[in-house]
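Field reference: "sequence" (input) and "structure" (output). Example, Cell division protein FtsL:
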Amino acid sequence: MAVEKYRVLPNTKTADRNHPDTYTEETRKTRKVVGIKRFEMGVYLILLFMIALCAFYVLSLKMEAYQLQSEIVSLESDIATTESEIHELNTEVTDLRSYDRIYEKANDLGLDLDNSNVKVVENYDQN
């Protein structure tokens, strides 16, 4: 704040202006409105622009993370579906290669079981 000194005329109109005794000195506080300079305005605008740019960058990163998370969930559900299909197919293979089924199919085709002609084959699973 700036302080100014000025002289005030007395309330009486009959006072002589030539005499300095009739004037009184008073101090009065005045407020001055300080304007923003161009450099400060530029700094503020650049700061505001940087904040907006950072906010946009953070939001784009969050959006990308959300998209990747939804893609991960989708892939995990596809993996679960495929694993269940594989399990069902393994169960079907086990059922199809059972001895009873092969014996039944052989009888349907007219083949007879001859013990001298049967060979035992060991099964080596590659699992």
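Helices lie at 38-96, 99-108.
The CA atoms of residues 15 and 22 lie 7 Å apart.
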